[in-house]
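In line with agreed milestones, the collection of sequences with tokenised folds has grown. A representative record is reproduced below.
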Amino acid sequence: MTLDAGPPTRWEQEYTGQDWADYADRFAREFAEGVDHDGEARFLDVLAPRGAAILDAGCGTGRVAAGLHRRGHRVVGVDRDAGLLAIAARQYPEVRYLRADLGSVTADVLRSAGAPERFDVVAVPGNVMVFLAPGSERDVLTALATLLVPGGRLVTGFATDRVYRVADFDADCAAVGLVLEHRFATWHLDPWMDDAGWVVSVLRAPAGAEPDPL
């Protein structure tokens, strides 16, 4: 377990103590009934090599991680929220989970947990970027970028109407050395427009070089 003593995340400020069991059960029930909640996993699967090592950063209840595991990828789910991880482990025990602060995940931490140290894809779906502790976003992106293989991809999705804006995200990614490769308005490849309510970004790490640790 790797948790720092930094300020609370926006997620913790809004949702600490909430019981997410009903929320997770609803997704599991609807998935069993054929409702499509698999858009993120399909999107990420297309980007990844077969049998890729994928880090689900901010994995929550494990839905996306499980979808990637079903597609044959080696997935590690990381989250700071112990309650969400307990639900993930109960519903999707086939996935490896690690409780950690996203800004503190290192190759050493992953190695000690028996997980891959580098990843072909780091996925940050589900509004994770806008629920981080205020001011920590660049540090988190730096930490996650260092876990990518050369030329690996970092993929994020978040709402555009929060305090942390797309322009802030782009500036942080540029500072870290991540290059924007694709941008969409949904996980279903709807074209990006400046007034879109959601942004999906695909960024690539430099090939043959480590990202700038700042």
In short: The mean pLDDT is 89. Strands lie at 53-57, 74-79, 96-99, 119-124, 148-159, 179-184, 198-204.
